[in-house]
Amino acid sequence: MPITHFLNELRNHLPEERIITDEFRRFTYSTDASFYRMLPQAIVRANSEQDIVVVLQLAGRHQVPITFRAAGTSLSGQAVTDSVLVLLTDEWQGVSVDPLGETVHVQPGVIGGRVNQALLPYGRKIGPDPASINACKIGGIVANNASGMCCGTKHNSYHTLQAMRLILPDGTVLDTRDEASVTNFRASHEALLSGLTELRESLLSRPELCEKVRHKYRLKNTTGYGMNALLDFEDPIDILTHLVVGSEGTLGFISEVSLQTVDELPQRASAMVGFSDLNDCALAVARLRAAPVDAVELLDMRAIQSVSHLPGLPAFARQLPDAGGLLLIDVRATNPDTLAASLAEVDRVLGESPVADSTGFTTDSSLIEEYWHLRKGTFPAVGANRPAGTTVIIEDVAFPIERLAEGVERLQALFDEFGYREAIIFGHALEGNLHFVFTQSFDEPAEVQRYDEFMASVSDLVALEFGGSLKAEHGTGRNMAPFVKLEWGESIYELMTRIKRLIDPNGLLNPGVILNDDEKAHLKHLKPMPVADPVIDRCIECGFCEDVCPSQNYSLTPRQRIAAFREIQRRKDQQVNVGPDWDQAFQTMGIDTCAATGLCELKCPVGINTGELVLKLRSRQNYRYRRLSALMARHFAAVASWVRFGLMLSAGVQRLFGANRLEQASLRIRQWSGQRTPVWLSSTPRRSNPIYARNERIDPNARDTVVYWSSCASQSMGPALNEDRRPIPDAVRSVLEKARLNVVYPQPTRGLCCGQPFRSKGQNQEADLMMNEVLDALWEVSSAGRYPVLADASPCSLQVREEAEKRGIHLYDSSAFIDRFLLSRLEFEPEPLPVAVHVTCSTQKQGLERSLLRVLDKVAPNWTRPEGIYCCGFAGDKGFTQPELNASALKSLAGQVKDCRYGISTSRTCEIGLSRHSGLTYYSLFEVVDRCSKAANTLEG
């Protein structure tokens, strides 16, 4: 078979671990955001351009189709295949900004939001602004010609493209920034370039076709190939690179792209404007096109109702009639005076429309954020509320702006005709670009038929009757490829097929995508969405969660865990043998290596914490250890004493043999044991003395009194042998003494644990028991919630915070406590040198980032937060039992913090892994506050 010969030869060039052929990983790694499922025969993880060149050359030799994928957030089936799928490793992270910030050079594996972070100091950003910009990658953004809410048709990838480094299907590399590369390419590919010139001349010879192309690109349009390249450029090199934009990996591989950037205007105002009739709403959009607005988003009443539970929605919006709608208007400017003038003009234009009600424009950034969070929440709201087992589908079309109102009305009529009562409409109204979202089951032939007839009707309506575009910004993909000819007509479709044959003569790059003569291709390979577990049934497999997952480059991401679990449940429900390979793979990659910190919940548009599923599965597996867990929970003070004793012994061994030698020896033992034994890291701490404090009666009228609850980790773990830090409780008490606060302690001071070590193993009953013991003690010592409680470990405060609030206990994590109670009681001599900060998962989940950063600005204003590290992966004890997870999550840490003096965190266990993989000592926040502060001369407030 061709694929066998291809893989055998590929193994001569790539290491075996980057050629994936087992079914479990082929299934999980190929999951994307679309509603299609195809199982690749092999997956190749490409590290470099040379890898891509080899893959393409061997694919040509053996006639093996190739599909490229970046983040897999595309919605239309562009990144699935039943042949060979090429994934990018994390080696494609290059970002280079020109001195003035006007151009940025980016490799395809960089997430769009990170490019904007690199451009922020220049007051610039990239033009494309898709809703998925914090998850999708530049390779996908350019390959799909993605746009977004503020991008319009002016600032998409096509119009901001400055240069490209491209690998053609034959393996040739073309770098349009390199004159020698261009010259060599003109000589070696003369026939290709001549063919592109002939195609341009063929189009120019038919004025009616030229006018059709111009009309189509006055709208947002990503249907088919970018035919405007044949009109906009004369040089065939320019034509080629601009055809590649939006070609969805069917013409070549983009290994680097240079984009012109756009201004990130600092002044901003937004308003929500209501209309009693959606037709009036759409007509107002046409008037606003001539006004100084940057974005206008339209929401129909069903879309409004879908987000009515979210904060920020004005009261009048809920009272609009069923036929009504909202406009969310955004205006930006370089300075306040220009902004004021623009707002006055927009208000004047709105005065010409029958506005039902309005919030008026606000410059309050938090309120603006709420408004736009509402708009972005429409799609996930439908996904979250869909019936279990159904798929959420989002389509995007564009109408000529003068016919937008009529188009909206006709779309709503089609929803009613085909029974999509839950369907909503929203979109980038300034461009006539509308998204519509509906839920669909593909379990029954009748449902597939309904979908087919609906899409045919939509296509006729948009493309033929209104002369619009069937794909405004989501790319053609598989689901719209059968309709490209309908939209463009026979003549232009023939030009598109000539483009494909000219550049990819063997048709091996992503076949079936963009051009597909199978009229029913959009109904094949539909992804099943079986009911699996209430925790994850709402997942729409968008992939937004993947970037923050610490195991993303080690085992599985949250999306992949969910996809695998769904497939296992589907096979069991259909009485299909899952097989030991799948069981073992899911156990190792899905359950054992999950940090279960739940950071994915913050990025998930429907709020799924995949860690909850993993903990549920661990609970089912660990029932046999319940008696041991119960015994340990009842005698946790003794367990903590044994931990301290073990740390004391290990410190003695470290002194004899050296910390690094002990770590290497434990790594060898782990290797010999088949990864069954834990690792003793060189940064493992020595024992710490627990807190001993007598039980005091507190005067209910006492002032300046706080409760200090020190975690079991803080009381057990002191500094490592090679660290100059001090035990965390000592630092906390020193700071509280400087602040002139009276400190009391819950009793007993030792043996109180929040239960997190048990909960992470799925032992919820024991965890709840221990948490309640802590809460009972805090309730008593705080005089029934009168005094604030300080928790010195972020993971512990997260565990008990919700239940503490229910009991009226005011519990504060370390950063929040310092921010609220100590900044005014202390004077600071800030650390002048750069320091690294790690914002723990538990800090993020409690929404305390701003508090932490305010404290850092006082004690270490020259702080830096490493990019791309959201969770350290230490996860309690996983840093010892799954050290590879911690190492993978912190792979890029050392390089980013090499110029820092030390690091700061708010979790003692996280600090072990951070210190180990950074080469720095990571201190607790209280230690840094202690070393940089002194008592204030006078107390404020």
UniProtKB/TrEMBL annotation:
InterPro entries attached to this UniProt entry: 4Fe4S_Fe-S-bd, 4Fe4S_Fe_S_CS, Cys_rich_dom, FAD-bd_oxidored_4_C, FAD-bd_PCMH, FAD-bd_PCMH-like_sf, FAD-bd_PCMH_sub1, FAD-bd_PCMH_sub2
EC code: 1.1.2.4
GO molecular function list: D-lactate dehydrogenase (cytochrome) activity; D-lactate dehydrogenase (NAD+) activity; FAD binding; iron-sulfur cluster binding; metal ion binding
Signal peptide: none
Entry superkingdom: Bacteria
Domain FAD-binding PCMH-type: 36-264
Bilayer-spanning residue ranges: none
Named cofactor requirement(s): FAD
Domain 4Fe-4S ferredoxin-type: 528-559
Keywords: FAD, Flavoprotein, Iron, Iron-sulfur, Metal-binding, Oxidoreductase, Transit peptide
PROSITE patterns registered for this protein in UniProt: 4FE4S_FER_1, 4FE4S_FER_2, FAD_PCMH
Biological processes annotated in GO: lactate catabolic process
Family under the similarity heading: Belongs to the FAD-binding oxidoreductase/transferase type 4 family.
Annotated PANTHER family: D-LACTATE DEHYDROGENASE (PTHR11748), D-LACTATE DEHYDROGENASE, MITOCHONDRIAL-RELATED (PTHR11748:SF111)
Protein name: D-lactate dehydrogenase (cytochrome)
Organism expressing this protein natively: Reinekea blandensis MED297
